[in-house]
Design brief:
The chain has 160 residues and is mainly α. It has nine helices and no strands. It is 79% helix and 0% strand.
Length: 160
C-alpha cells in the first residue's frame, strides 16, 4: 500500500495516495514495521502540509519518532524526516527559530554519518529558511555549503 500511495502521489492523485498511506501505516503499525510506518506518515505529511498543516505536523512528528525506533535504519532517513518536519512547521506558521532547530538537528546527523547528499540537501533547506528571514548572508553561506557538498551537478543548488 505504501508503494501504491507513492505511485499515486507522483501521478497527482493525492487523495487516493492518502488513503493508501493510511492503510499502509495502520498495517505497518500492527506488524511493528516501523520503517514503513514512518515512511507512510512522512509522505502523508508532505501531501497534507499545504491544506491541513496541523495534521501534517502531527504526522511529521510521529514519522520522526517512529523512524528513530527503526533498528539499523539509514541515518539519512532521519535527516529527511527532520527536514520534512521543519517544512511542515513552516506551513503551520511556526516561528523561524523552531524550523531552524529541526534543520540544524538534521545537519548534525547528516554530518555525523558523512552522507554528502543529505548534508547538501540539509544546507539547501537551511538556505531557504534563512532566505525567508532578514539574514541573507546566512542564506548565501548555507547555499554555498550545499553546493560544495553536492557530488553531482544540481540545478537548484547552482541557482541558489
Amino acid at each position: 500500500m505504501y508503494y501504491m500511495g507513492k505511485y499515486l502521489q507522483l501521478n497527482d492523485s493525492t487523495e487516493r495516495a492518502l488513503q493508501c498511506y493510511s492503510l499502509s501505516f495502520k498495517s505497518a503499525k500492527q506488524q511493528a514495521d516501523y520503517y514503513t510506518h514512518a515512511l507512510a506518515l512522512q509522505q502523508s505529511s508532505v501531501i497534507l502540509r499545504e491544506y491541513a498543516p496541523e495534521k501534517a505536523i502531527r504526522y511529521a512528528q510521529n514519522a520522526v519518532t517512529t523512524y528513530n525506533k527503526v533498528k539499523h535504519a539509514p541515518e539519512a532517513g532521519k535527516v529527511y524526516a527532520l527536514l520534512n518536519l521543519a517544512e511542515c512547521l513552516f506551513y503551520g506558521n511556526r516561528t523561524l527559530p523552531t524550523c531552524l532547530e529541526q534543520v540544524n538537528r538534521a545537519i548534525e546527523i547528516a554530518t555525523a554519518c558523512k552522507d554528502s547528499c543529505a548534508i547538501a540537501d540539509a544546507y539547501q533547506d537551511l538556505s531557504v529558511f534563512y532566505s525567508m528571514s532578514a539574514d541573507k548572508d546566512a542564506a548565501l553561506r548555507a547555499a554555498l555549503l550545499s553546493y560544495r557538498y553536492r557530488t553531482v551537478a544540481d540545478a537548484t543548488a547552482t541557482l541558489a
